[in-house]
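User: Can you predict the 3D structure of SigE family RNA polymerase sigma factor? Sequence below.
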Amino acid sequence: MATDVDVTTDLLTETYQRHYTSLLRLAALLLDDLGSCEDVVQEAFIRVHGARARVREADKLLAYLRQTVVNLSRSTLRRRLLGLKLAPKPMPDAASAEEGAYAALEKDALIQALRGLQRRQREVLVLRYYSDMTEAQVATALGLSIGSVKAYGSRGIEALRVRLEEQR
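Assistant: Sure. Here are the predicted structure tokens for SigE family RNA polymerase sigma factor:
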């Protein structure tokens, strides 16, 4: 049973110490570089600290943080896409050092396959199976119906299976 309490700085500090790594991993499954992941998780804690009076139930603090990490990850990706659209195109015959670094990071077959999924499929699978959330919790976190979560999940798993088989 949830009780109405103010989320104190001490509770937020304890949550930070216990769940920072899991939130960082959540961001890593949605983003592609450690620096951005760390920035997103830090920003999530800063925002939750500023809005802690709105979190009425202490046991929902972690869910609130997860949702904030997902939303900030989306914003980061949107800003990158806009930056890519506006950035000058590199010379076609010269590969950048950044491309080489990304190629080295993307050797893990599962992460490659996850990145190829539709955004909603990836979000549902990451929250459902990595963060060990129920379908109802995923639905609430993403603002979807449970039926949509089930549909995105099953389609995502099938697409993931196909992609992993293609990589072999």
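Residues 1-87 form a domain with the Rna Polymerase Sigma Factor; Chain: A fold (CATH 1.10.1740). Residues 104 and 112 are 12 Å apart (CA to CA).
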